[in-house]
Amino acid sequence: MSKFLRFATTAFFAVSLSTTALAGTLVINSDQSDPAPRKGMEALIEKFKKENPDIDVKLNVFDKESYKTSIRTWLSGESPDVVYWYAGERMKFFVDRKLFEDVSDVWAANKGAEAMPSTVGSVTVDGKQYGVPYTYYNWGIYYRKDLFEKAGIQQPPKTWAEFLDACAKLKASGVAPIVIGSKALWPTAGWFDYLNLRVNGMDYHMKLMAGQVPYTDKGVKDVFDKWAELIRPGYFIENHASYTWQESQPLFYQGKGAMYLIGNFITPEFPADVRDKMDFFQFPKIADQPMYEDAPTDTVHIPARAKNKVDAKKFLAFYMRPDVQTELNSVLRQIPTNKDAKPSDDRFLQAGYKMLSAAAGTAQFYDRDTDPSLAQEGMKAFQEFMIIPDRGDEILTRLEARRKQVFKQ
Amino acid sequence: MDAIMTSPVSLSRPAVQRSFWRRHEKTLAPAMFLSPALFAFLLFVVWPILSSVWISFHEWDGLGPKIFIGLDNYRELFSDDKFYVALVNNIKWLILYLLAPVGGLIIALFLNQQMPGMRLIKALFFFPFVISQVVVGVIFSWFYDPNFGLLNVVLNAVGLPSIAPLGDEHMVTYAIIVAGLWPQIAYCMILYLTGLNNVNPELIEAARMDGCKGFPMFWNIILPQLRPATFIAVVVTVIGALRSFDLVAIMTNGGPYDSSTVLGYFMYEQAIFAYRMGYGAAIATVLFLIMDIYIAFFLVSMLRKEAE
């Protein structure tokens, strides 16, 4: 459904729900609106209530997309006590505006840095922690083993040449090699992130995200050239701008397309009859760079204007616990941040977990790593490029003008 | 005026001191009746207009401090390609939307006959106007869907290749306008049906006696009598075209890559999703000025007509 509808409804509920926390009441605003995660979160909150019978927990659940806009209203007005959010630049945006509470004491009291070494950096600004990461997940290429076999591809591609070869074979066998739905823009950014990480490496990527490298730089052009090697021969499905990522999935399940570069969150969606035909491989190597990965991290924070910070900190500490993270992530089918928590034995998750453990470094995701207003323009640019690759230079020049504006300070 | 006229009367009868209310009744009563509406108008219309003009001189992300930057937002706007895309799309809306009064008139003429079951047929034609724009948008999105949409089923049946109207930068705006025309034509049709009820049968009879029929009859006798209906249909349609937003938001979010955006949506997107309140306000101000031109034209022509 459209961004607008979701925004309108959430804005309405945001105003009516997020207000008034009495002493002993803990108001939590969550964006985990998909049925399974939502149920998991609610079960955990029951557990928290049982352990803290004196706290009256009030949970408000919002749709993910509109949550992203309405959170600004809550943080600057009547704040809830705990908000769900994202690590990295997305968090820093609010930290810079002094809207998130420093929770370094919760980290210190619970030995958080030792328990969550891989993600502590993603919630740290100037040596202080501003939130608690409770889950993260891998990105990668999910593919249909049966279609690969039919096209005569022996094993998943490891290099760019093998990848192009696989695409050509798949196309020749009559299926679209790559499925994507670019209507909601963000799936395009997965491609950009991975191509940039594989071609130019992590340092370059993070500099670009921080606005320190122009989009007209040769490095970005190289990325577009590699991308065009997939676009020009028609390896992506037709009309991808007409589908959201949800709407594009049936093509994958009906066997009309063979690969999907997406986050691990797609795996619970696999229908039972094709689940066994699905597998996963790491984004292939391109240039001589270590294997970096996208691993978006989801977090909980205490707004600076929260009324009940004492209980909110209890809740954050609760979310750091290995047993809580084990339970939560088995529902989310994602990877717990606490190293003492057990990731579920789902085979996709195990593969992703193994891949991330071996990663040379992780990025959050394009729209979490760079300035939000530039991210929106950037993803539109990627969508345009994926439809009309001939406009590459023109698109990058336009995006560069926007970068200069956003990062002019 | 009335107060001045009544005051000498009360002076001439000092014994019966009339209350303040009695003396000023005729000025106070209308003022009191008007005040709630005036207050609401000032609060909900005038003040937001002024404050968004004020915001348009600032750079503001909605949370941080407002930085006064004078006319920079406008300078940027007039050199922004997206602004011209949106403006041109608004003009496309404006021109093509004028097909609604024409289409409405044709259907109304067709339906304006005595026949059993005609009420039902009229109701069916009017139906699209009753359903919400959101539903219209969703239905047309399905209709256009390249995978399972009815449009491609029909195209393929007559041997034409499949198209994806909402994913193609050249087709997308027209595809949305077609969706918008569906309810708009129904609305204009109702206006003309009421108008046709009021056509003077004697005039038609007289014209017929003079040997007038067919198109000349319609053009010279009937259409002039439908002038009030035409006037309202055009006004409503033009305003509808200028404030087009909901269908764009529901069907494409302005995409692919902004090619179907209109000023209203461009403003919403810049303010709410790109967190540029000042820039959004500048777009709003420009849209407001464009509407003002139209409203001024509308008022002048209305006053002129009244003067006739």
TrEMBL record, chain A:
SUPFAM superfamilies reported in the protein's UniProt record: Periplasmic binding protein-like II
A Pfam family recorded for this sequence: SBP_bac_1
Record bears the keyword Signal: yes
Record's signal peptide: 1-23
GO cellular component, one term: periplasmic space
Location(s), subcellular: Periplasm
InterPro entries: Bact_solute-bd_prot1, SBP
Alphabetically ordered keywords of this record: Signal
Annotated Gene3D superfamilies: Periplasmic binding protein-like II
Similarity comment: family membership: Belongs to the bacterial solute-binding protein 1 family.
Protein name: Sugar ABC transporter substrate-binding protein
The species this protein was found in: Elstera cyanobacteriorum
Record lineage: Bacteria, Pseudomonadati, Pseudomonadota, Alphaproteobacteria, Rhodospirillales
UniProtKB/TrEMBL annotation, chain B:
Membrane topology recorded in Swiss-Prot or TrEMBL: Multi-pass membrane protein
Natural source organism: Elstera cyanobacteriorum
Entry keyword tRNA-binding: no
Cellular localisation: Cell membrane
Annotated ranges, domain ABC transmembrane type-1: 86-300
Keyword Plastid attached: no
UniProt name for this protein: ABC transporter permease
Family: Belongs to the binding-protein-dependent transport system permease family.
Xref: Pfam families: BPD_transp_1
Gene Ontology cellular component annotations, sorted alphabetically: plasma membrane
A Gene Ontology biological process term: transmembrane transport
Transmembrane segments: 28-50, 91-111, 123-144, 171-193, 272-300
